Amino acid sequence: MAEDSGQEKTEEPTSKKVDDAKKKGQIARSKELGTMFVLIFSAISLLLYGPEIGKGLYNVMGRLLSLNRSETYDTTKMFSVWGYVADALIFPMAMFVLIIVLAAIIGNTLLGGFNFSWGAAAPKANKMSPMKGFKRMFGSQAAVELLKAILKFSMVAVCAIFLIQTFFDEILHLSLESAPGNIIHALEILSWMFLGLSCTLALIAAIDAPYQSYSHNKQLKMTLQEVKDEYKNSEGDPQIKARIRQTQRQMSQRRMMQDVPDADVIVTNPTHYSVALKYDTERAGAPIVLAKGIDEMAMQIRKIAKGNEVPVLESPMLTRALYHTAEVGDQIPDQLFTAVAQVLAYVFQLKRFKKGRGKRPTALSKKLPIPEAYKY
After folding, report:
1. 278: which strand partners?
2. Reduced to 3 states, what is the DSSP secondary structure of residue 328?
3. Which of 205, 243, 261, 334 could form an S-S bond across to 32 if both were Cys, CB 3.0 to 4.6 Å?
């Protein structure tokens, strides 16, 4: 996409891009780091268990070279000999192998973490393409691998020459030592030389691991357009989401307006706010807000109310308090119940008076009991 759009990949990869790459098996890996761990810990395990393995091999060799006649001709006797071999070698060999296995797991998961993907194991047609094969052979990655190979060969060769010169006298002296001391001594020299050669890879791994991490991050980088497209795909197109929200608001407003004729009273600001209230003992223990609005919506509520003969009363402070503290469909706050009760009482008395069932109520007080915290 970057090539098609002409944009450069300048943006850091998103978490979704990184997760998708992991699912495909694309994570940062350093073969040099894994190899270094395996070789160094192999040398360390050889230093730890090499003498025990050497003694075990010496004892096993002596035992196998001293078989008596009955052990030679009786096949059942051989099982006891193999048991002796197992007792002598199984523990040091098991520990030797265990250390190497743990080193291999740690070394290969230290960069990029543990990851298993069927996508990485599946065959890929592009791997069989001759043209892409030539690109890989002569690409930048191949050049880096060639430089690493030359560097490894040079460092190992120089280190090997240095180690041979260092241990040269001890190697020659091995022929003068007696068994099994010479075997153990030889294993010790071999282990230290092996460790020295393995440590030369530490410098290469220290360079390769950051480079592989950088290279992997560079491959995952995205163009600005890719980031925008991914956001649209995951979060939705902002324009579409805005239209959806607008449609939802319109539907909610239409439902709200349909409830206005059922209100007992409309309290107004009178110019900016309108709140429709209804007291239905079967639905709730306190009056509920059927509708509310400001400016044009407030005017529309008053228009519908007048068309359906719903009383409209001016009470600016109570209207603002109800608008800011109660949502449509909710009961009014307990702190405003007394003020709303006075309004509803006035409305109900006025309805009875109009039906000729009572006397005209006194005018509604302009100073309703509204707490200071609810004065807006």
Report:
1. 288
2. coil
3. 205
Residue range 36-45, pLDDT digits in tens: 888 888 888 8
Cis upstream peptide for 92 (omega within 30°)? no
pLDDT tens for 307-333 read 888 888 888 888 888 888 888 888 888
Closest CA to 343 of 370, 325, 371: 370
Amino acid at 96: F
Cα 62 to Cα 147: distance, rounded to the nearest angstrom: 49
As beta bridge partners, residue 292 has 275
- Given a contact cutoff of 8 angstroms between Cβ atoms, the answer to whether 81 and 64 are in contact is yes
Nearest to 211 by CA among 143, 120, 153: 143
Rounded CA-CA distance 274/292 in Å is: 6
In angstroms, rounded to a whole number, what is the distance separating the alpha carbons of residues 319 and 292? 9
Backbone angles phi, psi at 271, to 5 degrees: -95, -30
Quote the longest CA-to-CA distance of the chain: 133
Per-residue pLDDT for 296 more than 70?
A: yes
Question: Rounded to 5 degrees, what angle do the CA atoms 221, 226, 227 make?
Answer: 80
Distance of CA 285 to the CA centre of its chain: 47
Radius of gyration of the chain (CA): 43
Query: Residues with Cβ < 8 Å from 342, sequence gap 6 or more?
Result: 364, 365, 368, 369
- Band of pLDDT at residue 1, cut at 50, 70 and 90: very low
Which tokens belong to 270?
Answer: 């009178």
| DSSP result, 252-264 | HHHHHHHHGGG-S
Question: What is the identity of the amino acid at 373?
Answer: A
* Residue 48, token pair as written in the block: 């730890």
Identify whether the C-beta of residue 205 lies closer than 8 Å to the C-beta of residue 39. no
Q: How much is the pLDDT for 6?
A: 52
Query: Which residues are within 8 A (CB) of 88 and not within 5 positions of it... i.e. 6 or more apart?
Result: 55, 56, 57, 59, 60
